[in-house]
Amino acid sequence: MRLKPGALLRFYSLCGILIQVAATKNRARGSQGQFPLTQNVTVVEGGTANLTCRVDQNDNTSLQWSNPAQQTLYFDDKKALRDNRIELVRASWHELSISVSDVSLSDEGQYTCSLFTMPVKTSKAFLTVLGVPEKPQITGFTSPVMEGERMQLTCKTSGSKPAADIRWFKNDKEVKDVKYLKEEDATRKTFTVSSTLDFLADRNDDGAVVSCRVDHESLNATPQIAMQVLEIHYTPLVKIISSNSWPEEGQSIILTCESKGKPVPEPVLWTKDGGELPDPERMVVNGRVLSISFLNKTDNGTYRCEAKNPIGRNSTEYVLIVHDPNALAGQTGPDHALIGGIVAVVVFVTLCSIILLGRYLARHKGTYLTNEAKGAEDAPDADTAIINAEGSQVNAEEKKEYFI
To answer: Quick one: average pLDDT of 329-357?
Structure first.
């Protein structure tokens, strides 16, 4: 059967419609299986935030970005909100990227990317805006400070979000014992942070550099620093240095009075034994130096150096002993003399011991009886006992023995 030309045209049109409907359903089913993908963004106040929404498989389905107030920013490549800071970066069936420049704290919040399937699918991206802390300032220092006074230095910075961290340093060495205070600003979005350093002024702190360092994630590892150089006034510190450790008669000596204080001490005052220097011709003062020439025993004594400044005064003393050069030269022989004396004493003690021992033995000299004279115990002495014993008198001398 042959179809008429009009019927054939209607048949082809119906087939085209059916094919288009089937393709549309397939695309819808493919899009319905996809969700838009986004990421949270963190940006420093005043910077630029890039918001990106992606879909892996998308067939002619529209994408849209909206702000936290649910205002549409971009619908595909069409700008919906009149804000010159918002610009289109990329628009395709698979991606919609926009940028927000000169970001402020009010831009912070949750942004939404929508994929217009049936039903509509969304993904959230949170934009975090970091508040940059203001340059810190140190207050509470009044120059100069007297030694022993209490110092309270305060470091303060505002506008940070989240709250900044403050650290103290003295000559690059961190000081831990400090007070820290955090307060919300009037906007209730940023913070004012302050820290107080409390210590007693010491002369060793004069000229020290005290620094306050503010650390914050918005500073890209480059902290903000405020510095203060300390000026401490203190009484002089005095010390005497001698040019000769063993001064002898006829020699000279130089005594230097070192004085350190702030303000710088006035010219020092030299005295001897509580009075003026007795011999100005030999004892010459030149600034902080006392020179004494042709030393003699009369120069022995206590020399005092005194220094003062507007804060106070201080002094120190040096005891001068002038030595006899002859006595010093003869000092090389005392060791031999001492040894000779010891030897003489030992010899003397030995001789005395021998003499005493000889006298002791002499007093105890005696005789003893032989066996022949043992019976004559009534004799007045040993000789008589021998003579009276048995035997003749001739053998008496032979029978008498002595012991020593």
So the answer is: 70
